[in-house]
């Protein structure tokens, strides 16, 4: 009876805390957590009123009148319409209140994702209790802070990946598929990871995961259709005319296209994805793939080779970076290499913070995900080297 009372008291405290945070005034400058969120909120507002959410003129009017946008052009969103369906409840609030609530939701998403990933990748009980180090990395990571302070939705992609791995481990395939569907609000960030996951699910005949993945997407399309039956032609017209592949973005493809003068190199994924599918097919014939490792490793290549993306999208790198941090904490990587990796991470993070203070264009950050990927792969090679060395010792001393 006493235990139940304590549980109810904890729940009550959480509810009171959430309500308090929801109604309290926004405790930071008015423009923060709103820059990108106004694009999502404005488009969702138009959809909620059965208007064309892809119309830049109407979107500009909504942003000017309801969100206080004072630029000469509107903030556009090219995300799939099911993202707008997720945000429909926030259109019942004023923009100021909705942006504050979204800021709190974003913090919760990062916090929960860190908990799920830490519990997944930690292989020792005592390591799980050191989750504070995971929170330190997650919230000191500059892409995390940027995503929070401009009201981004990349946090949903991170949460979707963490949720997928969490439910997969708990053998709840439908829930895992639903979580994975969240990643499709920015499909270009996971254009390698998600297809390989779905192919692996199909190879193992885990159809409930595939159904769970498709169900929310179809539901989102259905709700959008009911609110705006002509959305398909309007949406694809806007996306097709938005010039996404010609925007100045912090991606490897953009950097190489500037050097070579060949814009088509930004579509390198057209070659990379089929090659990896061939690798998956040959690798899968030998043994089943480790999903946590598959997600962590393919995310790096997926984001770096994406045709477009933004510096705050690097928040999804928390998946492999938290795994890397746990390798170092658990002593799976040599101490001197762990120290070198940690110092390089801190240095790169610091340089990015300095660049932010200079308010440089986003394409100046193209180097950051490449450095993060190199640090992860260095850690992975060190881990493999240590494992092979240990196996060699065991083989050479069969009698202990």
Any chance you could write out the topology, listing elements then pairs?
Layout: H1 2-23, H2 37-48, H3 56-67, H4 81-87, H5 95-121, H6 125-128, H7 131-140, H8 142-150, H9 154-169, H10 173-181, H11 193-203, H12 207-227, H13 231-240, H14 252-260, H15 269-284, H16 291-304, H17 318-329, H18 335-357, H19 367-396
Helix pairs in contact: 2-3, 2-4, 4-12, 5-7, 5-9, 5-17, 9-10, 10-12, 16-17, 16-19, 17-19, 18-19
Give a summary of the structure in a few sentences.
This protein is 68% helix and 0% strand.
What does this structure look like?
- By secondary structure, this protein is an all-alpha fold.
- The protein has one domain (30-396).
- 68% of the residues lie in helices and 0% in strands.
- The chain is built from 19 helices and no strands.
- It is globular and about 65 Å long.
Question: What structural keywords apply?
Answer:
about 400 residues, mainly alpha, globular, disordered C terminus
Major pleated sheet:
none
Return the average pLDDT rounded to an integer.
88
By helix and strand content, what is the structural category? mainly alpha
Give Rg in angstroms. 22 Å
Tell me the strand percentage band: under 5%
From the N-terminal CA to the C-terminal CA, the straight-line distance is 53 Å
The string of secondary-structure elements, in order, is HHHHHHHHHHHHHHHHHHH
